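$ ./design --mode recover --in tokens.txt
reading tokens...
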């Protein structure tokens, strides 16, 4: 049933039983929006580029899909709490779904490196916040060690139920298009989502080419080695040593796709294009797929056929970055004459 959440809707394709309690906020069934101006910018015909708006999930990101199943299974296992490390979106989703389930939630966040919109969500949902004086990878190590010692369920993408929940996005894409796209573009940080979508497509017997995009300052999969100090404006993918590294490489190779890097300037340019030409406001990391498509187009290597770009988070997740965009503001006195 639409609107009932991913566990109820796709339960026949998920590792759940009659004993699994369903924890949901109505996640899933996000829009797939045609983007003809973005297609034109990439030199592709109308109707060939589509945007999967995962920012329309309850907490504003794709993380809700995996968290719904991970928290449902944690509740089934009689866990007393969930725990995660996060650059922001995971903590927001974990906090919300834990609150829904009545579970304790602890989040480890790299100090000063989480966008305000995401931190506000974790705070409001009552998560216990631990600031780590280090990067995400160090926070994840601490989170995993603490979860083991304290008996909490770790709900990062290393949790297999997260990947299972997130694969439902691929089911929705195929359902909406009536077929799989020729190519699937998405941002890559911890690499769980590209792993999940590829799993979903394969389970449906389809094999679109998978294109993952990292920020140039946080591109371990592109360089073939961890990045000790990842840097990028796209905080959601500011990760130097992805948990699902091997799975992402397998998705790339098995699908005959690619994993590339785009600069912060390209990311912010694509973010503005989406907002001003398509009316879609996404956080910086979510613009990486379109930035990647435009980069390939400039090199004459854009894939033919239908392309789906997954926009993983809403723009209000990172209002500070959006407000840095240059815009003309005119000021007038109240009651004065104003000319357009």
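writing sequence...
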């Amino acid at each position: 049933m639409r609107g009932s959440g991913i566990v109820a809707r796709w339960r026949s394709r998920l590792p759940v039983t009659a004993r699994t309690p369903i924890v949901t906020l109505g996640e899933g069934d996000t829009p797939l929006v045609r983007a003809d101006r973005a297609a034109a910018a990439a030199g592709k015909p109308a109707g060939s580029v589509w945007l999967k708006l995962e920012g329309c999930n309850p907490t504003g990101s794709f993380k809700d899909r995996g968290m719904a199943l991970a928290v449902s299974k944690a509740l089934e296992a009689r866990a007393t709490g969930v725990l995660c490390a996060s650059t922001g979106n995971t903590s927001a989703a974990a906090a919300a779904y834990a609150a829904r389930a009545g579970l304790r939630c602890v989040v480890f966040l790299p100090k000063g490196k989480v966008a305000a919109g995401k931190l506000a969500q974790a705070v409001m949902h009552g998560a216990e916040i631990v600031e780590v004086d280090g990067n995400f990878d160090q926070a994840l190590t601490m989170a995993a060690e603490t979860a083991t010692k304290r008996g909490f369920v770790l709900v990062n993408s290393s949790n297999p139920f997260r990947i299972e929940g997130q694969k439902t996005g691929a089911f929705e894409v195929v359902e909406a298009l009536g077929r799989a796209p020729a190519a699937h573009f998405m941002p890559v940080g911890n690499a769980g989502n590209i792993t999940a979508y590829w799993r979903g497509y394969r389970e449906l017997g389809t094999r679109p080419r998978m294109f993952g995009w990292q920020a140039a300052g946080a591109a371990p999969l592109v360089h073939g080695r961890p990045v000790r100090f990842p840097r990028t404006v796209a905080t959601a993918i500011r990760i130097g040593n992805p948990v699902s590294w091997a799975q992402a490489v397998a998705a790339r190779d098995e699908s005959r796709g690619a994993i590339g890097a785009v600069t912060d300037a390209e990311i912010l340019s694509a973010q503005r294009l989406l907002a001003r030409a398509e009316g879609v406001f996404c956080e910086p990391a979510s613009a990486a797929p379109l930035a990647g498509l435009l980069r390939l187009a400039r090199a004459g290597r854009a894939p033919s056929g239908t392309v789906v770009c997954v926009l993983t988070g809403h723009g209000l997740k990172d209002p500070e970055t959006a407000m840095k965009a240059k815009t003309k503001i005119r000021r007038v006195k109240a009651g004065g004459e104003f000319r357009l």
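exit 0
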